[in-house]
Amino acid sequence: MKAEIFLKSERCKGCGICVAFCPKKVLAIDALGRCSIVNPDECIACGQCELRCPDYAIFVDKKKVAK
């Protein structure tokens, strides 16, 4: 399963919760102190970032990939 990650940066307050819970280090805090998607190809669609974001700033769209 692959995923597409969407980030509403205007909602992000830079708490870092999503970064801390991402098991594949897909996310990072940028120079402005906000969440940034740095490694989208590594996303395993676990949804931990979306589940834990207190500001509803990040969304994971899970997609099935044909084998």
Q: Can you characterise this structure?
A:
This protein is α+β, with helices and mostly antiparallel strands and 67 residues long. The protein has one domain: Alpha-Beta Plaits, CATH 3.30.70. The chain is 15% helix and 27% strand. The chain contains 2 helices and 4 strands, in the order E-H-E-E-H-E. The strands form 2 sheets. A two-stranded antiparallel sheet has the order 1-4. It has a two-stranded antiparallel sheet with strand order 2-3. The chain is globular and about 35 Å long. The N and C termini lie close together (10 Å). The mean pLDDT is 91.
Biggest sheet: strand arrangement: 1-4
User: What percent of residues are in strands?
Assistant: 25-35%
Largest beta-sheet details: 2 strands, antiparallel
Number of helices: 2
| Average pLDDT taken over every residue | 91
Instruction: Name the shape in a single word.
Output: globular
CATH architecture: 2-Layer Sandwich
- Our measurement of the CA-to-CA distance between the termini, rounded to an integer number of angstroms, reads 10 Å
Order of helix and strand elements from N to C terminus: EHEEHE
- In the predicted model, the low-confidence regions spanning at least 5 consecutive residues are none
And the CATH topology?
Alpha-Beta Plaits
Alpha-beta content class = alpha+beta
Number of domains: 1
Write down the Rg: 11 Å
Which CATH class applies here? Alpha Beta
Give the fraction of residues assigned to helices: 10-25%
The tally of strands reads 4
Keywords: Iron, Iron-sulfur, Metal-binding, Oxidoreductase
Protein name: 2-oxoglutarate ferredoxin oxidoreductase subunit delta
EC number: 1.2.7.3
InterPro entries: 4Fe4S_Fe-S-bd, 4Fe4S_Fe_S_CS
